[in-house]
Amino acid sequence: MRFMNSSKLMRRFEELDQPTHGDDLVDIWKGFRALLSIVRVVVIFAIIIVSELFNEIIISSLSLSIWSIIVGLPLFLVISIVILLGDSLYSVDDSDIEPV
């Protein structure tokens, strides 16, 4: 077993102490993008569940299942547009995105 000499070991520790050159805003956007992606999936499931379970409830002469579509689809589209605009603003490639 070979041991590194102390100067080489100290140099490696100094390299670890150096900050990375990544942009903080891009890292924040990646986290926010992951959250938006999860919310987008939850919105779709909520639309499906509300449409199936609450057929009988009527609000302003429309059933709650229709209201879930009226509210849910534009919400889904707005979240998708925010994700696309954020990706173009922060120049995020699909290869940079880690799967959630």
Comma- or semicolon-separated keywords:
100 residues, mainly alpha, 3 helices, 68% helix, elongated
Explain the overall architecture.
This protein has 100 residues and is mainly α. It has one domain. Helix content is 68%, strand content 4%. The chain is built from 3 helices and 2 strands. It has a two-stranded antiparallel sheet with strand order 1-2. The longest helix has 30 residues. It starts with 5 loop residues before the first helix and ends in an 11-residue tail after the last helix. The model has no long low-confidence stretch (mean pLDDT 84).
Low-confidence stretches: none
- What percentage of the residues does DSSP assign to strands (E)? under 5%
Specify the overall morphology.
elongated
Strand runs, count: 2
Look at the helices and sheets and give the structural class: mainly alpha
Adjacency order of strands in the biggest sheet: 1-2
- Helical element count? 3
Please tell me the total number of domains.
1
Average pLDDT rating: 84
Radius of gyration: 24 Å
H/E series? HHEEH
Question: How would a crystallographer describe the biggest sheet?
Answer: 2 strands, antiparallel
Terminal-residue CA separation: 40 Å
Helix content: 55-70%
